[in-house]
Amino acid sequence: AKTELNIATPRVIAKTGWRTDELLDSITVVKEQYDLVSLLIGVNNQYQGKPIEEYEIEFEELLQTAINFAGGKKENVFVVSIPDYAFTPFGNGNPSISQEIDNFNLVNEAITDSIGVSYFDITPISREGLDKPELVASDNLHPSGIQYSRWVELFYDEVKLKVND
């Protein structure tokens, strides 16, 4: 049985298609503090061929900013790995996409671990997309609601416990 949580409407800052630099440019105006902050970014850095070294610098800055948004409480921040869009009709099983996504995820996981923030690897779920079309949205690229639900199932209990502590 799932526990019911009373939460305010989440504030989503990033926009579809943004890279790390675009998110960095936009969050400078955010002054609020939050009980829970998540970070998932990088697929558009990869898709647009931006250097992974640039991603590394900007991801670390974004993660530190996320911690600041959580009032300095690392335990109230979590990072979600980048899903692999090679496993969608758009990506068509392209192995070079998967390799690049793996490289970006190695970077974001190493930074997350070094800072001591929780990291959740949803990439394996995304890699079921060609075998399970219900995991891909009707645009043939993005995760479906069903896939997002699977992600939440992966980290729900751990994230919920931290917020309730």
* Mean pLDDT across residues: 93
Structural class: mainly alpha
Distance between the termini: 20 Å
> What is the number of helices?
6
The portion of residues forming beta strands comes to: 5-15%
Q: What's the number of extended β-strand segments?
A: 3
Q: What are the low-pLDDT stretches, counting only 5+ consecutive residues below 50?
A: none
What would you note in describing this structure?
With 165 residues, the chain is mainly α. The protein contains 6 helices and 3 strands. It has helices spanning 20-27, 43-47, 52-69, 95-115, 123-126, 145-164; strands spanning 37-39, 77-80, 118-120. A 3-stranded parallel sheet has the order 1-2-3, sandwiched between helices. Helix 4 (95-115) links the parallel strand 2 and strand 3 (118-120). Helix 1 (20-27) runs parallel beside helix 3 and helix 3 (52-69) crosses helix 4 (95-115). The radius of gyration is 16 Å and the shape is globular. The mean pLDDT is 93.
